[in-house]
Design goal:
- The chain is an alpha/beta fold.
- The protein is built from 17 helices and 14 strands.
- It binds 1,3-dihydroxyacetonephosphate (13P) and iron/sulfur cluster.
- 1,3-dihydroxyacetonephosphate binds next to loops.
Length: 341
């Protein structure tokens, strides 16, 4: 985890009490849990935001579901007193940086992100220092401390447009996702220097297995997230963020889709287009559920309930880091607004 803190007073200070409360939460039926979550959210003026990759039942109870960009945009404009960010830790940090006057909660502070962790802030700062004069573009999947050494943040929804908004001759460092960076280089003709990070979920989709699926479903369109490796991206009928893939799947005339991104998105795809068939792309290892992000799946209804009830764990970002990290995040939001994204 980054230098950012997540305070967990209830859990760390009194283990037996925490155990009892955990049992109390698990004694509630699913229906009771959901009713309690909605009651607590109303009583506390809390907004529940969820990423498309979390468990379907958590998505269903959220006030808002979206991709990383939409979650940041919603956090920036909410008038709720409490934001519960059902996603991974960097998403909670981004909300906390954007909303210093609000309480930002995450159901499980251990839900981190392999991509964000692949770019430790001190190593990234040294990389930046070794390339003086470069504009530093960082994917939102970074810790707050890494954002603090960044000029502009991007998400998979706006990376192309934000890179294109920089002067054509600007030398650029892009981190941490080398697959997204290479894809943006190919679209824009830029030659950004790439940090060699990757998401362990997206990097594991298999070209051979996707082609075998396509042979079984010749009319299926292939949807690919740009965090996937280049050869997988090349197979795509549509490359885009989770929100862009969802939009395409709803609007397109095809009836079947092979989906190469974290499988949580299939929940909303199936809900939005029940008459269509969505097939999760297989990972290279058929013995594991590697197209699931185990961090996103750590967010459960029980944890969401306890987090709202106890108003813990709170995400806090040290003031010196937040003061630096907010600039590239606000720059991203401002460019996205100008571009209508
Ligand atoms: P988007 O939300 O931008 O599609 O990114 C996917 C992701 O990996 C989030 O962790
Ligand atoms: Fe991070 Fe990959 Fe999980 Fe997204 S899917 S949160 S990039 S580990």
């Amino acid at each position: 985890m980054s230098k950012t803190q997540t305070t967990c007073a209830v859990y760390s200070c009194n283990t037996s009490k925490a155990e009892a409360e955990k049992k109390a939460a698990s004694a509630l039926s699913h229906a009771e849990l959901k009713a309690e979550i909605r009651r607590l959210a109303k009583e506390k003026n809390a907004v529940i935001m969820a990423h498309y990759y979390v468990n379907g039942e958590v998505q269903d109870i959220a006030d808002f579901i979206g991709d990383s960009l939409a979650l940041a945009q919603q956090a920036a404009k909410t008038d709720a007193d409490i934001i519960v960010l059902c996603g991974v830790h960097f998403m909670g940090e981004t909300a906390a940086i954007l909303c210093p006057d609000k309480k930002v909660l995450v159901p499980d502070p251990a839900a981190t992100c392999s991509l964000a962790e692949s770019c430790p802030a001190d190593e990234f700062a040294a990389f930046v220092a070794a390339h003086p004069g470069h504009t530093v573009v960082s994917y939102v999947n970074t810790t707050a401390a890494t954002k603090a050494v960044t000029d502009v943040v991007v998400t998979s929804s706006n990376a192309r447009q934000i890179v294109e908004s920089l002067p054509e001759d600007a030398p650029i460092i892009f981190g941490p996702d080398q697959n997204l960076g290479a894809y943006i280089n190919s679209l824009t003709g830029r030659n950004m220097i790439l940090w060699n990070g990757a998401c362990h979920v997206h990097a594991r989709f298999s070209v051979e297995k996707i082609l075998a699926l396509k042979a079984e479903h010749p009319d299926a369109k292939i949807l690919v997230h740009p965090e996937c490796k280049g050869p997988v991206v090349k197979l795509a009928d549509k490359v885009g963020s989770t929100a862009a893939l969802l939009k395409f799947a709803i609007a397109d005339e095809a009836k079947e889709f092979i989906v190469a991104t974290e499988s949580g998105i299939l929940h909303e795809m199936q809900k939005s287009a029940p008459e269509k068939t969505f097939i999760p792309a297989p990972p290279d290892d058929s013995t594991c559920a590697c197209n699931e992000c185990e961090y996103m799946k750590m967010v459960t209804l029980e944890k969401l309930y306890r987090c709202l009830r106890d108003e813990q764990p709170i995400v806090t970002v040290p003031a010196d880091i937040a003061a630096k990290a907010i600039k590239p995040i606000e720059r991203m939001l401002s460019i996205s607004k100008q571009l209508g994204l």
